[in-house]
Amino acid sequence: MVHRPVSGRTLPGTVRMSPAIAAMVPTARADEVRMVQAAWPVLDRLHGPGELRAAVLSLLMSGHDEAEHDAWQLETRGVAGAADTRSLLVSLPAAAHPALTEAFSRRLASHPLEIRQETLAGARRLMCADQRVSPLDRLHLLQLRHLLHEPTPLHRGGLREWNELTSLPLALRQAIASLTAFMARCVPEPDAHATVGLAGTAWYQAVVTALWRDPRQAPACHVPDGDTLVRALRTLTALSWHHRPLLARTWTLPALAHHGRRLPLVAARSLRCACVLLDTPLPPDLGPAFIELPDDGPRDDTA
């Protein structure tokens, strides 16, 4: 069974927010949750390949860039209701966009391969339309490709495996370091020039210190190129199921400490993408940054 970054179960037609979290969030967040609750019955009807593709591409748009909008219109030409769906999606709070993107991407995964391939190609064209592809854009593309493919069974590990990340084989620790270096341009805060700033360097060092018993032996923070990043993600498929949430917490806690427990949305979304790519649940401390949806499971359309 593949773990998803949403835990627990929710009654159909509701948006998940625990009583403890609800008591802490401001009125503005409660209003945002109600907006998603009102929109979800409409969005939950999206199941056709064209409308799902239009929804996913809408959610991947970075803003109101004219070139992106023109590209989106080309990609969704002939899809009935695409403009209305996009208008509804962009009216919803950004904190709900990750869960919506994941839900619609998973629904698309049940469609034929050529539709999934064209969706991924369309996402690339959309993101390249404005000649600017951010680190978060690249993570979103990797996440989309991951969600559109058949799930890979998790490596269960063995009884002799230790729970500490320092016990991992060197190849796995190096792969984690590569992915961490890539995310350091967004975590704990996005760098204006898409480079690793002081905050990103400090966060990277905090993470790799948890991977190497002697931090002096840890690799320096070098942002990997695309091929190296993909190889690192392939290597991480060998990470056992009980190490994955531990790694997610190792990423999240120093990032939260930097901001006093509240992350910028770009940083939170980057960490969420990493959790999706690892097929591991979100750490509890990261969950309040987002508005979740009902479980995207089978339903009876004849009811």
TrEMBL record:
Origin superkingdom: Bacteria
Protein name: Uncharacterized protein
Organism of origin: Sphaerotilus hippei
